[in-house]
Amino acid sequence: MKIVYLLCSVIIWFSKMSYLNQKQIEEYLALINDGEISEDDLEDSDTEGNENFYENGDDLLHDLESPLEEENDDPDNDPFMAGDPPLINEATANDTAVPQVPFPSTSQSSRRATMRGLVWKVKKIVLNSDQTAFHGDTTYPPELKDEATTGTPYSIFSHFITSEIVQRIVEESNLYSVQKNVTKPLNLSETELRKFMAILIYMSVIKYPNVRLYWSNTVGFQPIKDIMTVNRFETIRRFLHFNNNEKHLPKEHPQHDRLHKIRPIISHLNEKFALVPMEQKLSIDEQMCATKVAHFMKQYLPNKPHKWGFKLYVMCSVKGYAHKFEIYTGQENERLPDEPDFGPVGNIVVRLARGVPRHINHIIYFDNFYTSVPLVTYLAKQGIYSLGTVQSNRLVNCKLPDKKTMMKKSVPRGTYEEQMTEFDGIDLTAVTWKDNKVVTFLSSYVGAEPVGQVERFDKAKKTRIKISCPHIIKEYNAHMGGVDLMDSFIGRYRIAMRSRKWYLRIFYHLLDMTVINSWLVYKNLKTTEANSSVLNLCNYRLELAEVLAKVNNSFELCNKRGRPSTSNSVEMEIQAKKRRGPAQHIPPKDIRTDNVGHWPGNCVRSRCKMPGCKGYTQNRCEKCGVALCLTTTKNCFKNFHM
């Protein structure tokens, strides 16, 4: 341990003396902790938040002075702070970037030379509605479009968490258990893994302070207790695995992947998320996977609600649907041969935008952490408009008033100025506007006109006043919040179970993201139905968990085309009955129609639960738990399960 402290101190001292660049420091840190953790019983504890990961002040200093990428001093939720971080200097960019790919028109040297020759003019950008009209197709693919009338939470969720990835997780988990102890295999099945995910989703809605309390005899949660025992749940959690450790390349290998343990899940979800067609307007922003686990990839972002955790870069629609994401590791991913190099930050946007269709007028919004003149120009040449807040030092030769000038009392609130330039044949406009602070925007498609008005509170007059607001500000505020909306959805019902295994914490976060995406697809497919019949997020998660826990996955569920079946008629009657008022719980359609485990049993004489039947019976379905007629003249039991 003393050696580790000494090595950390040496790293910090050398970094302050500028003898080590960022990449070298990260390599030294990776030697201390390569992502593995101790494989003792402590890793399965759910007391992550109560642990002290810093034994002394040196450890805390090491974490705070970590050379990994830190949060921008000018965060997206407050882009007006005075401490704007400078651009990455040339030495750092050359040290950390991958070898340059020949790309003459966008090389760094030629780009810098062109930037120095930028000429800004007091001029307004003018694009008519036809030039920015969206020419893409937002129609869902056939496999999702068929869910419009018969889709259930489970069937839509299964388009993202498919049987293939479930089988992959089962195989890797069983392999990992044998690698740990060949005499005690896990023997996990696909059905059992779905039950495990059902418990996780239940726990995201029903909050207990400790995992074992869900199985308590006094205050336990019965639906979870009925799924599996607590010992089996903890055993699955202990051996849950997603990739073979024996295939993990060493750190010295050029193809070494720091996310090897979770890579199959990341690749699979990105592939499935991309199946949903993109809307015209998209936004890119950071997202936090909150955790306090001790790991060198963990980031500290002081301006986020969850300050510690793994950082994700996500591209979302205005409604919050996540089309693509990547997890920050400190490694610079390789660029494709036809992609320019905009540095570590600009390349994030380029990678996330790879799946965006070209030349149909998509628009991407981002904050000043990403925005630069070369990046906005590159996207425009690809047929993608963009808009973002920008740091003033990235607008070379621009004569817009600086913050000190704009913040003078003689300059009234609502003052704005606009200037325009041409870079590599693309017209760009920059607008600076004074609100309570000064903000500057850069865009390739929209400017200050038409100018509107917004209300603000005037402290001197003690009343609300109207001030001028350029159109570019309204455009940005209306469409930049997609990632924040996804964050708010996840935050309502987050899988908060703690773990010292870092890849499990990421898996829980990605499972939350998948549930949200499936819910957004479900809502979009149900737009023609009454709002009262569309499940809210809480009920959606509860129904999804119930089906995952009970449905037998050996029978494939499919939606038949053609005339409505008896099952659809029964389902409509059941939903109408639920809306009329409180009633006995009826299992979801996916459970009723799975054709497995529905055995008749005896019960106290009760009214039949088949819609339209007013008879009484002493027969019930053991799996569904409802009374149903089963006689020679009336077979409600059969009709209910069709």
Explain the layout of strands and helices.
Elements: H1 2-16, H2 22-32, H3 57-64, H4 90-96, H5 108-116, H6 129-132, H7 142-145, H8 147-150, H9 153-157, H10 163-180, H11 190-205, H12 222-227, H13 230-239, H14 263-273, E1 281-290, E2 299-300, E3 308-317, E4 322-327, H15 343-352, E5 362-366, H16 373-381, E6 384-389, H17 403-406, E7 416-423, E8 426-434, E9 438-443, E10 452-458, E11 463-469, H18 471-479, H19 482-492, H20 502-525, H21 537-550, H22 566-580, H23 589-592, E12 600-607, E13 616-621, H24 636-640
Parallel strand pairs: 1-5, 5-6
Antiparallel strand pairs: 1-3, 2-3, 3-4, 6-9, 7-8, 8-9, 10-11, 12-13
Helix pairs in contact: 1-2, 11-21, 14-20
Percentage of residues in DSSP E strands: 5-15%
Helix/strand/pairing category:
alpha+beta
> How far apart are the termini?
64 Å
Provide the low-confidence segments as ranges: 33-44, 47-57, 59-106, 553-565
Q: Percent range for helical residues?
A: 25-40%
- Coarse shape: globular
Using the coordinates above, name the CATH class of the largest domain: Alpha Beta
CATH topology of the largest domain: the name is Transposase Inhibitor Protein From Tn5, Chain A, domain 1
**Overall pLDDT confidence:** 81
* Domain module count: 4
How many helical elements? 24
CATH architecture group name of the largest domain: Alpha-Beta Complex
Region (Disordered): 39-59
Keywords: Signal
Signal peptide: 1-22
Domain PiggyBac transposable element-derived protein: 152-519
